[in-house]
Specification:
The chain is mainly α. It is built from 44 helices and five strands. The strands form two sheets. The protein has a three-stranded antiparallel sheet with strand order 4-3-5. The protein has a two-stranded parallel ribbon with strand order 1-2. Helix 5 links the parallel strand 1 and strand 2. Helix 10 packs across helix 12. The termini are far apart. About 35% of the residues are buried. It holds the Pfam family Ufd2P_core. Keywords: Cytoplasm, Nucleus, Transferase, Ubl conjugation pathway. It comes from Lentinula lateritia.
């Protein structure tokens, strides 16, 4: 053995020193560690002839000058008078012998083994072998022998039989159940103690470095055999009945729980097992040794597999169980990925993205899948819903909150750790970053069908898996979602042309055909340029995952609400009036009711489990934050200046929609709207910290510029979001946006115009359900208008809108049409409800009816009640709107194409409310049907009063031959007085109105006595004499201008051939008008002369 020459400090030495400092921190008892000596490790040299020692003077001569120098007076007074000890001398040969003996617990000297009671193993076969060799060997151990020493120790089998009495004590003293890996771990731990002791001793740098170099050689050997043992545990003799190979490293990894105390560690760590503080250092050594040529894949591949597919991740109780072994899996994985080379290795394993995996089994076959699918949803984890939310009908709010808090705390820790793991993988190397992106992309591509309306949940990824992945992606997005949007331009707006990572070829675009989208992509495709950055990848992957995953989970939760409503209706149907009690049918019906109640409990438990995650405040905040950012980004793409939100885009947007906006997947808009819809309804308080202004801006932008979105359902849903955002909650009586609608400059400027524009547009959406959809949309608008009506700025905006006569008249016409239909339907349904209830009130006759008849009538009643409730609500809201508008602006309501229709509608509904039919509207529990006849009548009367100073309106009422009568109006006056519906002043106005109408009626009757009218003078639709005849350009039909204008308000086609028609296209028939005017003059003169003659003939004087 040759002495090593002193070396300067190397980078490896510095790295080792850093590692030692980390070891010192992790090992709380490290300060007590020392190199084995005395009784623990006998001095080998004392039991055998020692070689001559170097002359003492030579050993101590070099430190002497240094010592003297320290004792000399110091020239500078600033230097503290501290005496430095002279560095100790290290006898490398003796130290090396002691170190190898202490680390490997082996010797070639029998006496050393005997002195240690065979704790140190006498390698007799190797000693005999070396004696037989020609070269004379010393019994002192050195670094050149470590290979032979270690192999000789590993080859000893404690179970072996021997006739050698000298060697028998060696075999008898070996731990019978100790595995090779445990022995090597013990050697590695002892080696670390020797290293710590060596550095603390303060030997000369050169000697210390030489010793460290020899320690590292032994370390490499121990780690090499440790890795080989993990791969091929049967290479050396092993005890029976023990788990060997990868499980031996998996067990200490499972002890690294980040969420609780170590699960597999005892209070006193074994000298031959890896404690939680040892694992990371051991993994680093393994990685350093086996990283070249990717040897680490073979060493740790099975360890990773056994850890990440641990059986605890597949237990029915999931993360809700009492034995939380899954937490150890999380901690172990964190330790593995903390070593960069291991992190990279994990992402190149075949199971990272398993070949031929399907959407349904990817989360069970991929390495990260089992961890990422842990959650609370009842479909995947029914045991959680059963244990946390059993007997849901008995759960108090406090009990529910306790369960929520427990589950949410666990979910928060799990999802935070999952992000930490993925983030560590991303930062490990470019290859692992790309592998993570490919992992997320694979999830998206496999689950494209998951967003479908009719999808079998067994064929796609679970809600649990998708929501956890969404949570990870939200956290990745947070760094570029700053409040000032300074990084928003780092997102590539042409991503779908520049990258093929996310395939959107089959997706519907916001406002482009598939051909237009394909052409745009081809025109903007990069040729040899850099791929989109990581920010762009994460942004678009988060959006896609939301569409295919998270939003579908929310949709499933909402479907549970509908299912619960169906169950309640079924229960109500089964219970009926209770007449089945005591009959032969009782047993069967009661059994059905019990089954339905059991189903109800399951659904309710599942609802609570969904709410534990979907309404988790932390997830909601992250979701709102991302959705807000996405909405701002989307408006920026629509903004011609591409500067939104600094400054805000100018509204309404340009009519020229940019192609880069048109070709974006429609699901971007859909997901924004859907999540806003969910959050405004289920978590409105979460907007209090941030997001109100952005929510308002998004709504105003796309409802004032509806031509940017093709899908009518999306536009209607934006309107729904506006409606939900004014629902009161807590102390906010006008909801999230009520205050902003009355104060924000954008709302004050654009809200009224936007509402009127959309009220008109929703009339024809092109959808098969447009007739019913429009009523819901307009109900929402009427509620919004009521919230802002007392604001003078908004009323001024309404008056400005009224100056656009054609648009405003169309708006009014649609309101009148709606009231006409809704009031007619609601009053009709109420009449039928009245009839059935009257029939049921006659108990004797009702009970005599067959059971099937009664159940059929009860079902009809429930259906009528649902419909009537909807119709009365919609009708009342539209009547209220008319009341507000007629009070504010009257002129538009007096236009010829409007006034007659308005008067007829009001007269008809007044007759229904106060005429003979009103008795048929009396129903039980009218409030259940949202029917308030007193308030409805008051609103109708108020519209009459608002317009009572308009002569045209008086004339229109008088001309309504179907519903108007003086007696009807006088009956309304009596009810008005009796029920105190109006003030005394209003009663006087009403009496005056009756007088004016009667006068107008007399005038009309006089004017209408025209005798026989030529057919060519009659309007072909109204059969009244035309006052302003016009010719329709395509059908060449002559019709009165007011008639065709009234028709075009609801239908933009020629009524005679269905061809497109605008009022500007009609041509005045001046020749016919002249003839009609002459006819009217002639008839009026004739009637006047006839009237004078009659008066003269009756004037008899004497």
């Amino acid at each position: 053995m040759s002495d090593a020459t002193p070396n300067e400090h190397t980078p490896q030495d510095d790295a080792e020193r850093i590692r030692l400092k980390r070891l010192a921190k992790l090992q709380t008892s490290a300060s007590g560690f020392a190199a084995p000596s005395g009784s623990s490790t006998p001095a080998i040299g004392t039991s055998r002839p020692s070689s001559p020692k170097p002359p003492l003077p030579k050993v101590i001569s070099k430190p002497s000058p240094a010592t003297k120098k320290i004792l000399e007076p110091t020239p500078t007074p600033l230097e503290p008078p501290i005496r430095k000890k002279a560095p100790l001398h290290l006898d490398l040969d003796i130290w090396e012998d002691e170190m190898i003996t202490g680390v490997l617990k082996v010797t070639l000297d029998k006496s050393v083994a005997e002195q240690s009671s065979y704790d140190i193993v006498w390698l007799k076969p190797l000693a005999d072998e070396m004696k037989s060799e020609a070269v004379v060997q010393s019994l002192r151990l050195n670094i050149d022998l470590i290979d032979r020493l270690l192999i000789a120790r590993l080859e000893i089998d404690p179970k072996a039989m021997t006739d050698d009495l000298d060697f028998l004590p060696v075999l008898a003293s070996l731990p019978p159940q100790q595995t090779i890996f445990e022995y090597l771990v013990g050697a590695w731990k002892r080696l670390n103690m020797f290293r710590t002791s060596l550095i603390k001793k303060g030997y000369t740098p050169a000697e210390t470095q030489t010793a460290l170099t020899r320690l590292d050689k032994l370390r490499d050997l121990v780690i090499s055999y440790s890795g080989l043992t993990l791969q091929e545990p049967e290479m050396f003799p092993q005890p029976s009945g023990r788990l060997l190979g990868p499980p031996e490293l998996v067990t200490p990894l499972l002890s690294l729980s980040t969420l609780s105390t170590p699960l597999y560690s005892s209070s006193t760590a074994s000298a031959n097992t890896l404690s939680p503080t040892d694992v990371e250092l051991f993994l680093q050594d393994l990685a350093r040794r086996f990283e070249p040529d990717n040897e680490i894949d073979e060493v740790l591949g099975d360890v990773v597999r056994q850890l990440l597919f641990h059986e605890s991740l597949f237990r029915p109780e999931g993360l809700g169980g009492a034995v939380a072994t899954w937490r150890g899996v999380v901690g172990g994985l964190e330790a593995l990925v903390s070593v960069k080379s291991i992190a990279v290795m994990i992402t190149r394993m075949p199971e990272w993205i398993p070949a031929n995996a399907t959407a349904a089994n990817f989360e069970k076959l991929s390495l990260m899948g089992p961890l990422c699918r842990l959650s609370v949803f009842a479909r995947e984890w029914p045991a959680i819903a059963q244990s946390y939310f059993s007997e849901p009908e008995k759960r108090s709010p406090q009990d529910l909150e306790s369960s929520y808090a427990s589950l949410r705390g666990t979910l928060k820790s799990l999802q935070g750790t999952l992000f930490h793991i993925f983030n560590t993988l991303v930062r490990a190397a470019p290859k692992s970053r790309e592998a993570v992106l490919q992992y997320f992309n694979k999830i998206v591509s496999l689950n494209v069908k998951r967003a479908g309306l009719q999808v079998d949940p067994d064929t796609v990824a679970s809600d649990s898996f998708m929501v956890n992945i969404q949570s990870v992606l939200y956290r990745f997005a947070e760094p570029f979602m700053d409040a000032s949007y300074t990084k928003i331009d780092r997102i590539d707006p042409l991503y779908f042309a520049h990258s093929d990572r996310i395939d959107v070829t089959e997706e519907t675009r916001i406002k482009a055909t598939a051909q237009e989208a394909s052409q745009w992509a081809e025109e903007n495709r990069l040729s040899g340029g850099p791929a989109p950055n990581f920010i762009s990848d994460i942004f678009y992957l988060a959006v896609a995952t939301s569409h295919y995953g998270y939003q579908k989970t929310i949709s499933s939760y909402i479907e549970l609400d509908k299912h619960m409503e169906d169950i309640e209706r079924h229960l109500s149907f089964l219970n009926g009036d209770g007449s089945w009690m005591g009959t032969p049918l009782q047993a069967r019906i009661q059994a059905s009711i019990n089954n339905i109640n059991n189903e109800k409990a399951k659904v309710q438990s599942a609802q609570y489990a969904y709410e534990a995650q979907l309404k988790d405040p932390e997830l909601v905040f992250r979701s709102i934050g991302f959705t807000i950012f996405l909405s701002v980004w989307l408006i920026r793409q629509a903004d011609p200046k591409k500067t939104h939100p600094n400054p805000l885009a100018e509204l309404p947007l340009s009519k020229d929609v940019p192609m880069s906006f048109r070709v974006l997947p429609e699901y971007i808009v859909e997901d924004i709207v859907d999540y806003f819809h969910f959050a405004t309804r289920h978590a409105p308080d979460k907007f209090e910290l941030a997001g109100k202004t952005e929510l308002l801006t998004f709504i105003l932008t796309f409802l004032s510029s509806t031509w940017y979105i093709k899908n009518p359902f999306l536009k209607s849903k934006i309107n729904d979001v506006l409606f939900l955002s004014i629902w009161g909650y807590g102390r906010e009586s006008t909801g999230i946006l009520g205050g902003l609608l009355n104060t924000h400059p954008l709302a004050l400027k654009h809200l009224m115009s936007m509402l009127m524009h959309f009220y008109i547009e929703v009339e024809q959406t092109g959808a098969s359900s447009q007739f019913y959809d429009k009523f819901n949309a307009r109900r929402n608008i009427s509620y919004v208008l009521k919230v802002v009506w007392n604001n003078p700025t908004h009323r001024e905006a309404l008056n400005r809108e009224a100056e656009n006569v054609d648009k405003f008249i169309r708006f009014i016409n649609l309101m009148i049409n709606d009231v006409t239909y809704l009031m007619d339907e609601s009053l009709s349904e109420l009449t039928q409800i009245h009839d059935i209830q009257t029939e049921m009130d006659n108990k004797e006759e009702w009970n005599s009816k067959p059971l099937e008849y009664r159940r059929e009538r009860e079902g009809t009643l429930r259906q009528l009640e649902r419909h009537a409730s909807s119709y009365t609500t919609l009708g009342r809201s539209t009547v209220e709107l008319l009341k507000l508008f007629t009070a504010e602006t009257k002129k538009p309501f007096m236009m010829p194409e409007i006034v007659d229709k308005l008067a007829a509608m009001l007269d008809y509904n007044l007759e229904a409310l106060v005429g003979p039919r009103m008795q048929n509207l009396k129903v039980r529990q009218p409030e259940k049907l949202r029917f308030d006849p007193k308030a409805l009548l008051s609103d109708v009367l108020q519209i009459f009063l608002n317009l009572s100073d308009q002569p045209e309106f008086m004339k229109a009422i008088a001309g309504d031959g179907r519903s108007y009568s003086k007696g009807l109006f006088e009956q309304a006056e009596r009810i008005m007085f009796r029920r105190s519906l109006k003030s005394g002043t209003d009663l006087e106005k009403w009496r005056l109105l009756i007088t004016k109408v009667e006068e107008a009626k007399e005038t009309l009757e006089a004017e209408d006595d025209l005798g026989d009218i030529p057919d060519e003078f009659l309007d072909p639709l109204m059969f009244s004499i035309m006052r302003d005849p016009v010719i329709l350009p395509t059908s060449r039909t002559t019709i009165d201008r007011s008639t065709i204008k009234s028709h075009l308000l609801s239908d933009t086609t020629d009524p005679f051939n269905r061809m497109p028609l605008a009022i500007e296209d009609v041509v005045s028939n001046t020749e016919l008008k002249s003839r009609i005017d002459a006819f009217l003059i002639e008839r009026k003169q004739r009637n006047k002369a006839a009237g004078s003659g009659l008066e003269d003939s009756m004037n008899v004087t004497h």
